[in-house]
UniProtKB/TrEMBL annotation:
UniProt-recorded name of the protein: Malectin-like domain-containing protein
Keyword Zinc-finger part of the UniProt annotation: no
Keywords, alphabetical: Leucine-rich repeat, Membrane, Repeat, Signal, Transmembrane, Transmembrane helix
Membrane topology (UniProt): Single-pass membrane protein
Biased composition (Polar residues): 475-505
Chain ranges passing through the membrane: 519-543
InterPro entries: Leu-rich_rpt (IPR001611), LRR_dom_sf (IPR032675), Malectin-like_Carb-bd_dom (IPR024788)
Segment forming the signal sequence: 1-20
Domain called Malectin-like: residue spans: 26-344
Annotated stretches, region: Disordered: 475-516
Source organism: Solanum stoloniferum
Length: 594
């Protein structure tokens, strides 16, 4: 039932798309819909968004919240994907995936696995026994749907997910990075706050963690009634309501990047808002330094407004230090209200060859058992669908279908446009009708296994005469050889043919013999001798007509339309809630490197 519902979702994508103002919150493993009154978030069960997996509950003594009490675990398939279709093509979204192990299986062994989106690698997830871990990405969606997938990377370590959230963003936000690259959150901090800030304080439901204070750092609170947050990346007013500063004007505020294990290209936002109306003889002015080099002009934070300072496409190392340093003419120490740090991913993939994808969907539409696989069929490598192989080209092509023992039944749709196929294994199913001629048109086909099905009629000459092709048609009792004279006669279904064609020569001989033995007896007892010849001619004509009609139905079965619908299916790890950038104040006189 779930897989059928998934196909319906995919088909609807070709009819309409929903506004980019998406706000989807899935409580994974849960079957109920409810409102979290603390955050005013409406949570849904995830059954309508995923076709596989098992629901589990964390151990009661490990419960940390209602949302995190349930999880969905995937013990089968290489990768399993969620489909979110309330997306507008080209819309900018924030996706957050949360994981809380809670020792749900009693094994005290939190797993590791891969996290992916839209055919792109997102993160190598490392879960913890007693802590919530979440990962967040921001990017521009290339289609009118998105997929989030989990893939098993270690034996006996099964992927799971506790919550999946998708938030639509304004197209002007986070626009200082090329649309073909994703941002991966590493830190988001509201300095001076004593609580986590998110929905409803932030309409985009970004999670702003409280900042960490160090020696000589003090919290200051704005006395502004309103703060204009309608520009830039639109930080919520509650984030700008507090800041940290130093307790004397000679100190500086700095943070390091040692949470990055290796060198990375980053995008960083710094938000500054004056906390009070300054007197005419007061000045607050400062610069941003990367290590010993200034990377900004003097910044004078405005009152009841904010300045956003960003750096983009900047390569940093774990030892890089950023500092807020007052200028020589400043009478007040520096301050900072909020900070966001992202790593910038590689170019987003366009996905598997679109021609292959469209044709694969037609195959999935025809066979319900295949409809549970969503997400990109080939990407990211090596996490393909379990039953296909793909090339390493860009874009990848589907080169093999391994559908033996999939309980497929009925006729095959035309998938001749998947012209990179080299291997097709359809053995041990219940496929019927004639062997499709299009197999012979696949230019790269080397192996075709049709054994143990219910195919009928002759093997097409396009296959039997194809050089370099290995074909197995054994176990199809109603197939005949094209070299067999009776099979050739049976195959002559063109207009004007004098011989009726059937799928089995043996059955045809039996029927003919039965007619020869019985027909004269019937005639001899019912009609005069002078009508005998004409009666026989008439009866044979009728039989010939009926057989030919049956033959036409067998040799030329009605085609099954494949249809064309959109396809359904980086790299650093985000930290848990508790970990945030280190912030420290340093005596400027003793900071000889700045």
């Amino acid at each position: 039932m779930a897989s059928s519902h998934f196909l319906l979702l995919v088909l609807l994508l070709s009819v309409f798309s929903v506004s980019a103002d998406v706000f989807v919150s899935l409580d994974c493993g849960s079957s109920e819909a409810y409102t979290d009154h603390e955050t005013s978030i409406d949570w849904l069960g995830d059954a309508d968004y995923v076709a596989n997996g098992e629901s589990h509950v964390v151990q009661s003594n490990n419960s940390i919240s209602h949302v995190m009490d349930t999880l969905r675990v995937f013990t089968t398939r290489t990768k399993n994907c969620f489909l979110i279709d309330e997306i507008e093509k080209g819309g900018k979204v924030l996706i957050r995936a949360s994981f809380y192990y809670g020792n749900y299986d009693g094994k005290s062994n939190p797993p590791s696995f891969a996290l992916q989106f839209d055919g792109n690698h997102w993160a190598s997830v490392t879960t913890m026994s007693d802590q919530l871990v979440y990962y967040e990405t921001i990017y521009v969606v290339k289609g009118d749907y998105l997929t989030v997938c989990l893939a098993q990377t270690e034996e006996n370590q099964f992927p799971f997910i506790s919550a999946l959230e998708v938030r639509g963003l304004d197209s002007t936000m986070y626009s200082h990075v090329d649309d073909n690259h994703a941002l991966f959150l590493r830190r988001r901090v509201a300095f001076g706050s004593n609580k986590t800030i998110r929905n409803t304080d932030d309409p985009y439901d970004r999670i702003w963690a409280p900042g960490i204070s160090g020696n000589s750092i003090e919290t200051v609170t704005s006395d502004a009634t309103t703060i204009d947050t309608s520009h830039g990346d639109q930080p919520p007013q509650q984030v700008l309501q507090n800041a940290i500063s130093t307790n004397n004007s000679l100190n500086i505020i700095s943070w390091n990047m040692n949470f990055l294990p290796i060198d990375n290209v980053i995008y960083m936002n710094m938000y500054f808002s004056e906390v009070t109306q300054l007197d005419v003889n007061q000045t607050r002015s400062f610069r941003i330094f990367q290590d010993t080099e200034s990377i900004s002009d003097p910044i004078l934070p405005p009152y009841e407004d904010f300045i956003q300072m960003y750096v983009s496409n900047l390569t940093v190392s774990p030892s890089t230090i950023f500092s807020v340093v007052r200028t020589t003419n400043s009478t007040l120490p520096p301050l900072i209200n909020a900070l966001e740090i992202f790593t910038i991913g590689n170019a987003l993939t366009d996905g598997t060859n679109s021609q292959d994808v469209e044709t694969l969907i037609s195959l999935q539409k025809e066979f319900e058992v295949l409809q549970g696989w969503i997400g990109d069929p080939c990407l990211p490598s090596p996490f393909t669908y379990d039953w296909i192989n793909c090339s390493s080209s860009d874009p990848p092509r589907i080169t093999a279908l391994y559908l033996s023992k999939f309980n497929l039944s009925g006729s095959l749709p035309d998938f001749s446009s998947m012209d990179a196929l080299e291997t097709i294994d359809l053995s041990n199913n219940n496929l019927d009708g004639p062997i499709p001629d299009f197999f012979g048109t696949l230019p790269n086909l080397k192996e075709l296994n049709l054994a143990n099905n219910k195919f009928t009629g002759p093997v097409p000459a396009s296959l039997s005469n194809k050089n370099g092709l290995t074909i197995d048609t054994s176990g199809n009792s109603d197939l005949c050889s094209s070299s067999d004279e009776s099979c050739q006669n049976n195959d002559s279904s063109s207009p004007g043919s004098d011989q009726p064609a059937t799928g089995s020569t043996k059955n045809n001989n039996k029927n003919s013999k039965k007619k020869k033995n019985n027909l004269p007896i019937i005639l001899g007892t019912t009609i005069p001798a002078f009508l005998l010849v004409w009666a026989i001619v008439g009866i044979f004509a009728i039989l010939h007509y009926k057989n030919k009609r049956a033959t036409t139905s067998l040799v030329n079965p009605g085609q099954i339309s494949g249809g064309s619908t959109p396809f359904v299916d980086r790299v650093q790890m985000s930290e848990n809630f508790e970990k945030n950038p280190e912030v420290a104040a340093h005596d400027h006189e003793n900071s000889t490197n700045v």
